[in-house]
Amino acid sequence: MNDLAIKNATVVDGTGKPAFAGSIGIQDGQITEVGDAVGRATREIDAEGRLVTPGFVDIHTHYDGQVCWDKQLTPSCWHGVTTVVMGNCGVGFAPVHAGDENCLVELMESVEDIPGSALHEGIPWTWETFAEYLDAIDTPYAMDVGTQVPHVAIRRYVMGDRCYDDANDADLLQISSIVRGGLEAGAFGFSTSRYYGHLDKAGKEVPGTRAAAKEMLAIGTAFAGLDHGTIEIITDQIEEDAELAWVEKIIRDTGRPLTMLALPGVKKIWKLAETLHSEGLELRPQIGARPASILMSLDGTIDPMAIFPSYKAIQRRPLDERVRMLGDASFREKIKTEEPIHHKNEDARRFTSRYDKMYPLDDALTYEPAPADSIQGIADATRRHPLDVLMDTLAERRPIITFAGGYLGDLNAQFDAVARERSVFGLSDGGAHCGVLCDASVPTYMLSYLARDRSRGETMPLEFVVHKMTQDSAGVYGLFDRGVIAPGYQADLNLIDFDALALEQPQMVYDLPSGGKRLIQKAKGYVATIKQGEVTFEHGEATGAMPGKLLRAG
After folding, report:
1. Contact 340/308 with Cβ under 8 angstroms?
2. Fewer Cβ within 10 Å of end Cβ, the chain: N or C?
3. pLDDT tens digits for the chain (554 residues)?
4. What is the three-class DSSP state of 544?
5. Is the peptide bond before 309 cis (omega within 30 degrees of 0)?
6. Considering just the CA atoms, what is the radius of gyration of the chain in Å?
7. In angstroms, how far apart are the furthest CA atoms of the chain?
8. Nearest CA to 77 among 424, 485, 526, 497?
């Protein structure tokens, strides 16, 4: 007698093999049967031919603070995710000396756009070491949670105000020791940021950005003798031979998987990944469903109107009042005559001034605009001033998407990178960049757009897309007990009405601790999400079940 049976399903099993008709039996949190027929169960669900997939595994989420107050881990839970990995990009909240908590909050706030007030109010700060942090967050969840030891926090803990400088030999011994202790306590890996765009509030590159190869190799020694642990690196030096040389060495020295965020245009990393794979070693370039992008809006972190003095004067007024002002003809004419006060940051200046690179988010939520869809393109086609188009769009409360790393007019290059065998799917940033994006929704986007609706280029086979978000991503972090629908695997599943699957419009909500804001995006079409054999969500609504837990690697 099974606890749960899903019958008459179209099974996409996570391996990439063709979908098949079948039923699934579940007992004690594990899949016991998959076949044409399964035994009776306490609860039976008739799938009526709908899809059943493994639960999605999201390896780049930044939920390090949110786990303290949100045990469902929204928005990821609304998009079929049943396992997350956090502690990404080198930032996190342990280890920490008493009295130094604000430094880590400010680093997270600056790098990942998570409201500092929410972190201060929502995090209890009952720990010092990384192991104590794991103990503090070892609670029930709607999904499983794994974490990584963050380089930035370790450097701050070991070096104090020297954390922006080169580490000396004594520092390296202590840093390596802390990484080892975190791995032994159950961390799934170690992460670091070497990306120029990750800056603290003072505008300085976060600690460890330019850490010497000597330091990175010393950290690699922390993995010696362990049979778990993955290394995550965020870097803007991904094509530099010197960078790749020590990356290759750390992979060879440790034998552990290493994942690096990669843009579609890079070349050398793919060649190195293939070479290492042929020798049984794993370098996995990490690719997102969409290029790095932000959504600008009147209530978001970046408001493209804020560069105009007249608008700046009313920026703190209620949203409805600002919307009315944008519709006022005299106000508009005044805006058009003003000299903008541009951002000092080069990226922010580009985001808010290049109307040919700013695109109103379309109703279909394709995130793949054509050049004619830009603010400038619309202005040219309708013979209007681009500022009129901009103000009309914002007054409609429609977000404006702009791409951080450039955009060639379609997502062909991005999806080609996703399709590469050695790539791993990631970079949802589910708990981060709260005021500028909601990429926790990308599992739904991958299924509904890339595998079904895309018309501006080729779609990808549904089975392949599911594989990339389940078995493949889980394996990078050694989670070989999930991501496949077969007997013996963990019963993490999604029952999906594929024809009805769709994203909803992004919306700004103020539901973080202390009233902090964030963009969320819900979905339609998830009939049920099942975690370890328990139904956690039905038709998008939480059941209250919390079968998930903190995972401890090793």
Report:
1. yes
2. N
3. 999 999 999 999 999 999 999 999 999 999 999 999 999 999 999 999 999 999 999 999 999 999 999 999 999 999 999 999 999 999 999 999 999 999 999 999 999 999 999 999 999 999 999 999 999 999 999 999 999 999 999 999 999 999 999 999 999 999 999 999 999 999 999 999 999 889 999 889 999 999 999 999 999 999 999 999 999 999 999 999 999 999 999 999 999 999 999 988 899 999 999 999 999 999 999 999 998 899 999 999 999 999 999 999 999 999 999 999 999 999 999 999 999 999 888 888 999 999 999 999 999 999 999 999 999 999 999 999 999 999 999 999 999 999 987 799 999 999 999 999 999 999 999 999 999 999 999 999 999 999 999 999 999 999 999 999 999 999 999 999 999 999 999 999 999 999 999 999 999 999 999 999 999 999 999 999 999 999 999 999 999 999 999 999 99
4. coil
5. no
6. 24
7. 75
8. 526
SS3 label, residue 104? helix
Question: Token digits for 339?
Answer: 């000299």
Q: What is the C-alpha to C-alpha distance for residues 258 and 189, in angstroms, rounded to an integer?
A: 9
Question: C-alpha dihedral over 453, 456, 462, 467, to 10 degrees?
Answer: -130
Location of structure tokens 């870097």:
235
Distances (CA, A) of 275 to 217, 247, 251, 268, 271: 20, 13, 12, 11, 6
**What is the pairing mode between strands 534-538 and 518-520?**
unpaired
Q: What is the DSSP string of 18-68?
A: PPEEEEEEEETTEEEEEES----EEEEEE-TT-EEEEPEEES----TTGGG
Secondary structure of residue 419 in the 3-state scheme: helix
C-alpha triplet 498, 81, 486: angle, nearest 5°: 75
CB of 136 closer than 8 Å to CB of 95: no
Token couple for 281: 């070693």
* Dihedrals phi, psi of 491, to nearest 5 degrees: -85, 70
Is the Cβ–Cβ distance between 23 and 2 less than 8 Å?
Answer: no
Say yes or no: domain 56-290+411-475 is CATH 3.30.450.40: no
CA atoms of 447 and 246, how far apart (whole Å): 37
Angstrom CA distances, 190 to 153, 219, 456, 458, stand at 11, 9, 38, 36
166 C-beta neighbours (distance < 10 Å), count: 12
151: Cα separation from own chain's centroid: 19
352 and 304 Cβ atoms separated by less than 8 Å:
yes
What sections of 343-404 are H helices per DSSP?
346-353, 375-382, 386-395
**Count of beta carbons in the 10 Å neighbourhood of residue 432:** 27
Write out 208-273 in H/E/C secondary structure.
CCCCCHHHHHHHHHHHCCCCCCEEEEEECCCCCHHHHHHHHHHHHHHCCCEEEECCCCCCHHHHHH
Q: How far apart are CA 257 and CA 252, in angstroms?
A: 10
Residue at token pair 């409201």: 115
Locate all alpha helices (DSSP H) within 383-436, ordered by sequence: 386-395, 412-419
Non-local (6+) Cβ contacts of 280 within 8 A are none
Domain ranges of the chain: 56-290+411-475, 294-403
